[in-house]
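Extended Data, panel c. Modelled sequence:
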Amino acid sequence: MLCRNFLPPVHIKRLDALPSPDIYLRWVKPCVQIISPTISRAPDQLYCVAVWFVRLPWLETISMVSLETAVRHFSGHEANAGKTNNMQRVPMSGVSKLLLASAMLLGLAACWGEADRNGNAWMRETAHYYPASDITPANVDELGTAWEFTDFVVRGSTHRGVQATPVVVDGVMYVSGPWSVVYALDAKTGKQIWQYDPDVDGQHARRTCCDVVNRGVAVDDGVVYVATLDGYLVGIDAKTGRENWKTDTITDRTRSYAITGAPRVAGGNVVIGNGGAEMGVRGYASAFDKKTGKLAWRFFIVPGDPEAGPDEHPEVTEARATWDAKSRWDLGGGGTAWDSIVYDPDTNTVYIGTGNGSPHPIWLRSPAGGDNLYLSSILALDADSGRKKWHYQTTPSDSWDYTATQNMILADIEFDGKPRKVIMQAPKNGFFYVIDRVSGELLSAEKYTTVTWADRVDLKTGRPVITAQSNFSDGPKLIWPSQAGGHNWPPMAYNAEEGLVYIPVLEAPMTFEMHDKQDYRPFSIIQGVGGSFPALADPNDPALVKLVQGQPEPKFEQVLKAWNPKTGKIEWTSKVMPFWSGGVMTTSSGLVVQGSSDGHLTFYDAKSGAVLHRINIGTGIMAAPMAYEVDGTQYIAVAAGFGGAFNSFFMEGWAAKTRENNARLLVFKLGGEKVRLAGPRPTRPLTAAPVKFRGNAAQVERGATLYVQNCARCHAGPEESGSYPNLWKMTPETHEAFNDIVLGGAFAYAGMASFSDVLSPTDARDIHAFLAKPLESKTPDNQKPAAERKSLH
């Protein structure tokens, strides 16, 4: 445990195989700043570990001019740093080595205290917690740009969302962008070292619910791991960017599987899931040998069609008992593990959050009812075998798209007076869960936002007490939270020193209305439910007035909440920010940092929630920031570029509505340069279509229906501004090539796949006639914003 708590975040095979002294000194330097409150706590341990350090070979010839210099080095006295230039290499006696080691352990004592409060490095990673002690509440307003990277791959003219948090290892930053492209950058200068482009099939964009995004990479033992949109897991040499191996993770390529989440190294394996529960797939997670890419195990999250063969493993049989035997197996079942996967090396357990059902309403999916395991659950699996240790289902019989794929935090806390190893999650359903991660015992489940689908969670049974308001099987209902959830994929963060979790909370209900039936349609949204955000609708609409009556007043906004997991209470709440803002990080110096869709990076005081500083970059931020240090300088980095589920239309207040939405990676440091604001967004007028493409009234009406079914989830309406091309602004040349694009796949590389499998030439003609009709009024009634038509991942 000593190495794991104190030493740099690298893999140490033997005590005599430690990193070089210089690397080690740079790593411990930030810890020294908190020596005072910790050094007096463990003098005996300090001496014992100093003796252990004496045995390390590199102490034999370490260059130091004097013990005083060593102490100054560890104490961060920059004014004396220059005196080390005249250092001489001298042999050291045992006593001298002991004295030097003791001085070095002054710094380690600080790290010891840090480890006590914030857990091991792997815990801090799940908590989005960073030891950035130089950047403090007192000087955060001195941050400026250190460097900016903008050379992201763009296909066609569509700028996609950027959702990854960078990873920095040995002075190199690894970050992924749209289309699963990985970039290795010098973390000090931003200079590109290499780029790995997996050359994703552009037509695969049609198989995603929510853009061609990628949420990051894993780095381990000199290998960078990335999962590609089209379903491959790749091991890349971290130094050269060359592909070590590439393996196909998809079991059925006739279905709409896609990957946008980051892989997780779990012992000797790399674990990855997939998405597609909005489009009719059966969810599973897979583990592959991290050295060879060979499949180690696969865990199917929901049962498959019993006529297709026997159950793959015992857990599938256990799950099948909770489904109707006549379930809609043809629609996949869902349950995809599309985001959060975390690993506990102490227990060799990998935790996987699972997704919603396919289709959403249980009354269509499993008509006789049942919990429908393992939808919307946390699975604890043995990392070597993939066998289940325990599970907890946050939303039994899920009908509301309340996934449990949101990020999970591992921590060691005192709960009800007892030390507990816990896993914490704020899934979509609006409850914050604290669970013993060893036993699976539910410790706490309290509402962190407005919830009307359930009154509470019974801690004795672990089950929610579901309300009548949640049932929309026989008519529309207004339900909190929306399909977007109280918390979606943008990560929350945990600061153990403050004892608080910082949750980016979405405050919005939704109207839910079940479809009469749901047929399978290839590569299409098949949720089985319609819905809308009432806060964006006409408040005088009689139908809406009836739904809202007696329910909490609808909202459509976002806040940051500081949540105390021990008490289940909110400690502070930020001012309202625009909906669909970004993930969160926190630091050892007491900062909480979050980006927002209006293009600001905001720094809060972790204890009080006071706004300390705001940086306007002019580009919407969805990804969580991170912090790192190179050569004694600390940096804060954040990826920016709006998109994902909202790439089809941008709302008032979002930076992408009025400014360029190009992908950017910005890195800040104290005393940096002035931040560059994104430029204004170019505008194009609506363009009249050539007369020859205008059809008769029947063709236009039919084309409108086909447009909503096939096109509107990306292209939206004539007066909506998103990243995808506005089809009412097509040039004459594009009108001429319309069939080549829609049926022939002329723009497939850029993500506009061919629709020839579901659209005939007559269908394409009628859609074109609808688009070519001269506009007489605002957006047609049958063109709702994309956020009202699909799940929000």
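The two ends are 38 Å apart (CA to CA). This feature is highlighted in the accompanying rendering.
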